[in-house]
Amino acid sequence: xxxxxxxxxxxxxxxxxxxxxxxxxxxxxxxxxxxAKAQIKVGExxxxxxxxxxxxxxxxxxxxxxxxxxxxxxxxVKNTTDKKKLFDAFVLNVQTxxxxxxxxxxxxxxxxxxxxxKEVEGTVSFTAAGKGPFTVEYDDLENDKKELWKxxx
Length: 153
Known about the structure:
This protein has 153 residues and is α+β, with helices and mostly antiparallel strands. It contains one helix and eleven strands; from the N terminus they run αβββββββββββ. The strands form three sheets. Strands 1, 2, 3, 4, 7 and 9 form a six-stranded antiparallel beta sheet that branches. It is rod-shaped. It starts with a helix and ends with a strand.
């Protein structure tokens, strides 16, 4: 009976040890995932960015916001041509400091036909994973890419 009790205690201690090791691994994986997110400043930050003229538009980045793992750019876009023109936010690319493209969030992307000389405001969203600073580029697939801003988050 004594050997059976010792064996049972040994099995109990071994299973507790294995459970503790498994939990430690999960915590380490979670910490790695959170580390990438923690490098990005959460919340809305009013930053100063110069307006950029590109492809018949004057684009101004008003502010950036990070919430729920989404990077949102608040833009003001003016059509500087004499004809109405479509501005679609899918011409914007955002890259991490490691040159990895962020994925655009389909549900919150500005796409409007702007009348000549008029301006509109809207938002463009991207997944907020990776390490900054982030580079915002304009790429209409017809011309060369043009770097617009560096976001220091």
